[in-house]
Task: structure prediction
Amino acid sequence: MSAVLTNTPTAAPLHQASPGLWTLAWRRLKRDKIGMVSLIVVVFFLLLMLGSYAGIVAGNWSKEVGVSYANPSFMAGAENLDAVKAKVDANAEKIPYVDLSDIDPLAPRYKEWEERTAKIKITETPRSDTLIFGGDKWGRDVLQKAIKGAQTSILVGLVAALFATVIGTTLGAISGYMGGKIGDFLEWFYNIFTSIPYILLILAFAAVFSSSPSLAPYRGVPMVVAILAFTGWTGIYRLIRSEYIKHASREYVKAAQAIGATHSRRMFVHILPNVSHVCLVQLSQHVVQFIKAEVILSFLGLGVPVDSVSWGTMLAEAQSELVIGKWWQLAAAGISMAILVTAFSMLTDSLRDALDPKIK
Amino acid sequence: MQKISEMNLKTPRLGAFVLKLFLSICMLVFASTAFAAEQKVVKIAFRAAENGFDPQQIEDRYSVGICENIFESFLTYDWLARPVKLAPQTVEKVPEGEEGGTLYTFRIKPGILFADDPVFKGKKREMVAKDMEYAIKRFRDPANRSPYSWLFEDKIVGFDEFVDKMKKANKYEYDTPIEGIKVLDKYTISFKLREPDYNFLYFFAMPIVVPVAREVIEGYPTDTRGHPVGTGPYVLKEWVRRSKIVLERNPNYRGHTLSTEFADPNDPWDQAAIKALAGKTLPLIDRIEVYPIEEEQPRFLAFMNVQHDYIEETPLQYVQELYANGQLSSAMQKRHVQRFPEMQPEITFDTFNMDDKIVGGYKPENIAFRRALVHAHDRPAEIAIIRRGNAVPVTSPIPNGVVGFDPTFRTMEQEYNPEKARALLDLYGYVDKDGDGWRDMPDGRQIILEFKYRSSEEASRQQAELWTKNLNAIGIRMTSVSQQFVDLLKDRKVGKYQISNVAWIADYPDAQNFLQLLYGPNTNISNDARFNLPEYNKLYSAALKLPDGPERNKIYREMNRVLTAYAPWAYGVQRLFSHFINPWVLGYKKHPILYTSFRFLDVDMAMQKASMQ
Result:
């Protein structure tokens, strides 16, 4: 009997902790099939990005492995531009070279130069006529370019969204929690930003950044990130502010005040965890928005520099290629972007559902 | 436009106002359709936006192209003669140089009228010699900031002294006479030069060296660019900046004819032009609508969709859609479109800033560095891929089609050869010193080159890509910056760049127009490379004093050799442009120096109406 008594099962449920916000959210997300598929796609892209960052995939994207506009392998046999180059080479005139040796300051070392030249041999790898998903004008593999482009685009999207969320959340917290004069001031500041159409604002920032010589070393990806972060924080600010206004007068905040917590402690240690699900949803929403914005900026020539690649520069190049019937670069960049953006948006939707405690 | 602003907007009763509005719109629509039915209209696109139409303030080809039709220079080119030949336009004949080529006297034909304008207060205004004197003086008025002031610098007796005096007095008095510019009577003007200049007459065929009426310039002091009033066949009817330019017939214009004297009997274009235009009083087109479209694709598509009558300088990447392997595409054949190929007297090149601490300099190691960059630049790829085969490499600054071109000048130094480039860099100590995998200067400084290119042009961006790629291949780092065309021009003028891509087209068909781009004293004016080599400057001055001939060609060859050795430029290409013309456009023939063809054109209206949207 005694054995039975000691084995009483009633005690266990009493001691089990109730699941937290995040555990519940994860459980809800797991039940959401679309959400899970989207999550897998997004994770796949992120892994691809890390892989390309580490040089495991698409490390050779800038190698010219094919002929100019090499056809995709499923379209082998279609005409390509190599014939044009061959014709140009054949046309080179055979007129004797002009002798410069009497006036050339380099003339004394002609012989040395020649000897050294003879020692250098640049071997050119043979170019293939077809590539898996076709080649661009220089003969680079479009598939590898799309992967490398994903790295730039996603990196820009993620980092810019992170910065925008930090800016939006901080300002929103201050404005919502403090209110009064500071709140008014921040509201004014916010209004200035929202009174200008978004794309125009981005272009204005881009123009200022790119024309300022002191910012020259930061041109390219860091500049695009800064532009997007500085223009994209407004929506987040607004949402966080309203959350803070709501929370500032709740009992748990009053209680914290009663035990002597400082303002900043109340703002960021007590309230922030309770509104963090809003931040997270906003973050993922902005990633999508910024990936698209980067594409627009690069398309307009204000984005990443010419020696790197992003989906935006690929689309910009595709604009003129499409007219001459070379559609594969557009397809590669367009499809990968469409998949990622759709998956990310769906995931955001699911996250919002999962994280909202009011929805069961 | 006029009609809408004249409407009485103060009408108190709304009903009456609406009625009036309705009636006037009806009238406007009726009037315009009835009118349009008898007007010959030509619609085309320009490749770049215009800047304004004050001839003495502008330099871009597109604004100058419009000025060609509004203003008239003293001389012009015979429309069909090739190679080009000067012909009188508003003067009685092309003057001969007197006093050893230092004195030129022009006699204006009497009775040439300016177009009507409110500043003339309803009176007809005749063009006289004083108008040209005024225009020439305007070139050096600091207020106009003319990019072509170099035309008249160090040229006319007393002009430089006059400008200096005005600068000191801090004003610019147009009434003060200049020794070398004499208005002999109402219709006669003469110019006395400091030294013989055999290209001087060409200046007077430039569409910017044209007489302007002082009343007009002073009547619209803040907007002379928007109020061009000339003696030419057209007037500016409507101008929506950077989007639409409308020209209409100038009722005061006396008319011109097509000279057939120098036509080539074997050239089908010449024969077609003669058939369409000979013996008629020109112009035949009543209205011209020009749409500046900077983006290449929409401009191309506007032609493909039959919105424009013809397309000039078709973007090279699209040409093969219409014309490949020596024949027109089947779609174009069905439309009976014709192709007019044109190798313009132009060159493209990449200029190095000679004052720069890395790419500049005249010491052997500096020269070696530039020459290595030139060898590294893959010009065959540029021609095949960026220009799609529609270009030929140039070997000197003097392109085919201008006087002084030397077809036998071919140099090894400007040919693609990355092995030689590497060897040369190794030889002069441009090797990796700090172990980061990139080459450094012989003294250990890092090399990061910067290439500046024009932002709205695809070919420019590709050029930047190609340079970056080629230089990376020989171990040199390069970044690139895109800029708006206007900003780029400005930066280049003051030397705020390292390497940049340029295209230059002849203002007049003589080698001097190209060689002056490297003449030392032209730094800050037109010498963007800031190249200043005493040897070269001396040759340039010597060539200036000689007429065309073997003696001058010898000097030109010497100059070409010097430039090849010092390499202030990496030579690019001369492009082969294709213009496509719809079948209802009659008499089309593109002139190599003049930009527009409206004055020598006709359209078959029935066919145009049936085909165009």
Summary: The domain at 21-56+141-359 of chain A is CATH 1.10.3720.10 (MetI-like fold). The interface with chain B takes residues 62, 68, 81, 84-85, 87-89, 91, 93, 95-98, 100, 103-106, 109, 112-113, 116-117, 119-122, 137-138, 210-211, 216, 219, 301, 305-307, 319-320, 323-325 of chain A (CB under 8 Å). Chain A has one domain: 21-56+141-359.
